[in-house]
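Page 47, continued from p. 46.
Same chain as before, 72 aa.
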Amino acid sequence: MIGRSPHWGDDRVIYRAADGTLPTIAAAMTDMEQPDAFRRVAAGRAAFRTVDLLDLLTLLDRVSAPVEAEDA
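Result:
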């Protein structure tokens, strides 16, 4: 690990890759971030948080919405 810094509105961990580059990964995807309250209580019994499923539903609704044709 090289450091932590906010990037793209996210708390990110910066690390040195084998090729010498400095990529970043969301801190929440590492063991550097403490699990949130939901994950602690779920103790591995729930694959997804409710808020994440609602965000997914919103995204799927946007993607599947019909595209309005422009006037020719």
